[in-house]
Structures are given as structure tokens and as C-alpha cells.
Amino acid sequence: MILNPILPGFNPDPSICRVGPDYYIATSTFEWYPGVQIHHSRDLVNWRLVARPLNRASQLDMRGNPDSCGIWAPCISYADGLFWLVYTDVKRLDGNFKDAHNYIVTASDISGPWSDPVYVNSSGFDPSLFHDDDGRKWFLNMVWNHRTESIGGSPKHPAFAGILMQEYDAAAGKLVGEAQNIFAGSPHGLVEGSHLFKRDGWYYLTVAEGGTGYDHAVTMARSRDISGPYELHPDTFLMTSKDAPEAVLQRAGHGQIVETPEGDVYHTHLCSRPLPGLRRSPLGRETGIQKCVWGDDGWLRLAQGGLAPDLEVPSPDPQARREPLTAIHRSFDGDTLPEEFQWLRTPYPERIFEMTGQALRLHARESIGSWFEQSLVARRQEHLRFRAETALSFAPQTFQQAAGLVHYYNRHKFHFLAITWHEEAGRCLTILSCPGDWPDNRLQFPLETPVSLPEDGEVELAAAVDGAELVFSYRLDGGDWQRVGPVLDASVISDEGGRGEHASFTGAFIGMVAFDTSGSAIPADFREFVYSPGLA
Q1: Any idea which residues carry the catalytic annotation?
Q2: Is-contact 157 189, C-beta < 8 A?
Q3: Is the pTM of this model over 0.90?
Q4: Tens of pLDDT along 388-409?
Q5: Quick one: which of 464, 530, 511, 513 has its CA closest to 341?
């Protein structure tokens, strides 16, 4: 069986394609660098990260992009001997405008190198590229209408003005002909995330609707003509959890159809697993997949019936087994950053970190709330219960310098166990928390007094998360772990924490951070990082 989610943790907006026996899923990365994650599988059960295509300054620079902006809804396809990746770089979230720029990159091999981007348009976000069987290519994206009451956190239907389609001339690298608005969406509203699929002379259009919160859905329509008109599915939706509050997988929507070599049909989708009793999803929007069947009426439906996604669905490979959970221990003694780690916004990582051969060295830069040059390297939280540990050598000389272990969502949702300096305590431990205090983003300091540390030497730091609870601890010289501070609210490090479900679109990370607001760029050396699932 396939166990959902297949890509746990922050992996939203899954676009899927198959090339021979190989399946590839591309997911959104928002402000995290490098841009776009591509995972590979041959059985739809086990997936491995194989590429992050947007990995250099000539392709992507997100310095200054607000939280939850950056790379939205990539679409991956294969045609003419090339992989094609289309995506949006969103430069604004709040207010009436989005400033959403759409691009295409290509590669002959999934691992790259990927080309520099070709600019396409800026009329809206969530682009896709459809390769028709007559050789023509069609570019689709939703149309953003700024003449609306829409503000960040409260999307309004008029802003989502339909699905725009225009022919793409690959040789010329530009759109040609007239743009057409081919689908206004269903009465559910908030139409976005469009993908086309052709079968038996029908063009099937799947879109995401209802916003990316608990009313999210995959809506389906079809037409004999690619330009429409498109008739709605008799059930309107192919998939949604909006009427199934008991379902483990909530917020189901935004995905794409794929066929196996044998002709079986699956549909990817984003989803979330809110904490029991809370409408908060620290793991963010994850990737799931459902088996589907074509009905006698020519419409696609979930194989299990109904509209809600299942946790387990049949695999096309009955011999496939999910790889077991194990702790991940990274010793930073190599010359490359381990693949599960990312950083924020900048295409110049050498400014914020380096691998010394003995440690991951962060060059402390701007504050933990910066949108420009923040020295933060982290990996996704993939489990509701986990423990993370790291070992840090750091010698601050002023309160403006801090480094340590952070449970991070964005600039106004994080808990940070930091080594810093205090006028009375000297080198010490403190906690900096920002528990979703919007719009002020004010820090809280849960420790009444700092914990004094020796003047030098390595300090081990740990974070144990059990659902909605986070506890920090530390130890010296391999001694016993000592708890630091109170139980903190880990649930706020979630999509729904702070501003609410429509204002944040990423997921919780756990990792290492350093800042130096004095401007001295003090180094912080992290010797290792351990992530242990299920061991809070």
C-alpha cells in the first residue's frame, strides 16, 4: 500500500509526471533556497529527493521576498527530450497586488543542469504547461484581479478571476496569439492551480479551489475543445476533505493526474495533518496521492468512493514496502551541505555559511526576522513527535550576537534556544520566542534569567517536540541533559498559527541559526545535527 502523505512535511502543490517507469513530483518551496523540490519514485511508495533546480543567482534571487512568497506551484512535464519546469516567483503577499512573475526552465536530465529562466508573464500565479498531441504547447495560469477587497489572510473570490490560457512558442521563447480565459471556476470559488490532461478526445481540466485552508478542493471540468467551454464534473469535486472533519488528511486539494504504464490513474494532492483537537498543522501542506478510476460516464473519481482522501491506497507495485523510520545523524565533516537542509532567500550561500571540513560554520548576519540575508540553515519537520540535537561552538562578545537551535516557521512564528552574551551572566543561554504576535512581531523571552555557561567550549542543544509542546534542553561535556525554560507552544509554528490559515503557506523547520546585528559577522560552528522521528 501507499501510505499518505508520501512526502511528509512542507511539500505542497504537487505536480507529477511520468517518464517511462520513473515518476517525478515537483513541489513548492516558497522563500526557501534552492527553489523547487523534485522527488523521484518507481513505485509511488518510496520517494527520494533528486533535484532542486533553481540553485543559482541567474535563476532565482528572493532577497526581500516576504514570508510565504517566492516559488509557488511549479509544474513539471516531459516533452521533446526535455524536462520542463514552470513556476511563479511571487514578490508580494499582502494587499491588492501579488507581483507574480512566471518562468520556464528546462533540462535534458532531471538532475540538471537546468537552464536560465525564460520569462513568460505576470498576469497571475500557479502556471502549468500542457503539451498537446499535435505538438502545440499551452501555458495556463490563474488571473489575479487586484480590483478586490482581498487582503493577506482573507482571500476574496473576485481576486481569482479565472484560468488564462495562451499558446507558448518554445522556439521563440514567448507566448503567441491571444490569451483566453477558459474557465471561471465553480461556485466554490478561488480558482487556481490548473492542469490539463487529454483522454479520448476530451480535455480534462483540474483546478484547486476553496483557498488553501480547510475548504480546499480539487475541482474537475472537461471540454472537447481546449479553449472550452468546460462543463463541470457531475460531483463538482474530484477530491476534498471540507465535508469530512473526521478525516486525518485535511485541506486536500491542488494536484495533478498521472497514468501508470499499465493505464492505472493516480492523482497527487496537497493535504495537512492538523494536531488532534486543534486546527493547526505544524507539518504544513504535505503531498499525498490517491488512486482514481474512470467511470462509464467518462469522469474520474476516487477509487475508494466519496471525495475524502485515504491514508492508504493500493500501489501499482504490490511488492513495494515503505522504508522504515530511522534517526538521521549528520556530522558536518564533509564539503557539501546534506541534501535535506535549505536556507532562506539568498542565492549567495557563501555569505551565510560554509563547510569547514569539521563543522557547518554560519556567518552571523542579519536578525532572525530579516527578509534579506539571514544565516539560518534548517530541515523540514516531518513528524508530529521528534527530537533534534546539535553541538555548537560559539563565542559571543555582545548581546547583539546569538546562535543556536531554532524551531522556525517565519519571522513572527519561531522558538529559538540561543547562546548569547549578557552583561551580568557573560556567555549564556536564553530563549527568543515570537509566538505569532501579528502584526507587531514582538519577541518574548520565556527565561526570566539567562543560564550561565562556561566562557568557552562546545555546548549541545536539543529540542523535543510532542504535538503542541516544545521543550528545550542543553548539556556540557557529554553530561546529563538539562531542561531550559518552560514548555513552549509548538502548535503556533504552523500554517494556521498567528495570522491564520490563509496567510502562511510553508511549514515548520528545525535547524541552526546565527545573527550578529553589530555587523561583525561572527562565526558559529555546528559540529553535527541529529533528527530523531517519534522520539520526543
Answers
A1: 373
A2: yes
A3: yes
A4: 999 999 999 999 999 999 999 9
A5: 511
